[in-house]
Amino acid sequence: MKTPKSLIVLAIIVSVVLMVAKFFAYFITQSTVILTDAAESIVNIVGSTFAFYSIYLAAKPRDKNHPYGHGKVEFFAAGIEGVLIFVAGVLICAKAIFAIIEPQMLKEISLGAIVIASTGVINYLLGYILVKNGKRINSVTLLADGKHLQTDAFSSVGVIVGLGLIYVTNYPPIDGILSLLIGLYIIFNGYKLVRKFVSGLMDETDFDLLNKIVEQFNRNRRPEWIDVHNLRVQQYGADMHVDCHVTFPWYFDLERVHQEVSCIDKLVGEGVEGKVEFFIHSDPCLPQCCHYCKVENCPERKENYRKEIEWTVDLLMENQKHFEH
């Protein structure tokens, strides 16, 4: 199993090789749209370099100055890569407009298309590997870098289509028009990465992560866990910090509550990738909880059990006991 560092190093090496190949294709064709693809490869290299440093820093153990670890640096790496992609897209659009106004005839179109097709296939496969591993370990950096490489691969498809149209129609302005469209697409992807960076720093709700946690709660649900509410999840690199309120029978002593909290930490955390740290506030049950409490032979039951409350993301995020559900 490859480590995040080794995957990023592989991405840097491959990006350098592909950049050289794309600039070779540009010099033999003089195509603006190929230059667009080659310029994005420079961003790939810079972005992967930032990604390597962020993964190195995120792997450092927590210390007094960083009690939650260094994982949030991955959001900075995604943000920097997003800004670079955005700026590259703007420059590409400017070059494309110039190429539309003053188009020029292209050369060696077939050879250029073959080179770009080869780089596109390699980029997509490498991007797929990074995205797959990024999802496996909850790495924002690997996901961002992998999606960027896949975006570059899709851009290469557009380049090939454009070169084919130019070859068939012998209409040079297509080169600039397609370059402009790809530039706009690149700007949009840069915006999405910057948006990811901002949402990560602001601890915006990640509903995919919440769904995983709630699925684990439901899969391991115990009668003693009468209610769960005020559920929140924060991501720090590959690690997650989960805090919530759990309602237990009010007559449980401190030792029994501790056992149940440890049980939640173990059973729920085992089914989620990466390290999960739980911060659980224990609440005593109230008589209003009896109708959905499944604890058998409860000595303090005030009302018969009537129905089970379905635990959903929306329900568990509420900051209150669920008397009326």
From TrEMBL:
Segments spanning the bilayer are 7-29, 41-59, 80-101, 113-131, 152-170, 176-194
* Domain of life assignment: Bacteria
Q: Which UniProt keywords are listed?
A: Membrane, Transmembrane, Transmembrane helix, Transport
Q: Where in the cell is it found?
A: Membrane
Coiled coil regions in record: none
Record GO terms (molecular function): cadmium ion transmembrane transporter activity; ferrous iron transmembrane transporter activity; zinc efflux antiporter activity
Listed GO biological process terms? intracellular zinc ion homeostasis
Q: Mind telling me which GO cellular component terms the entry cites?
A: plasma membrane
What family is this? Belongs to the cation diffusion facilitator (CDF) transporter (TC 2.A.4) family.
Q: What is this protein's record name?
A: Cation diffusion facilitator family transporter
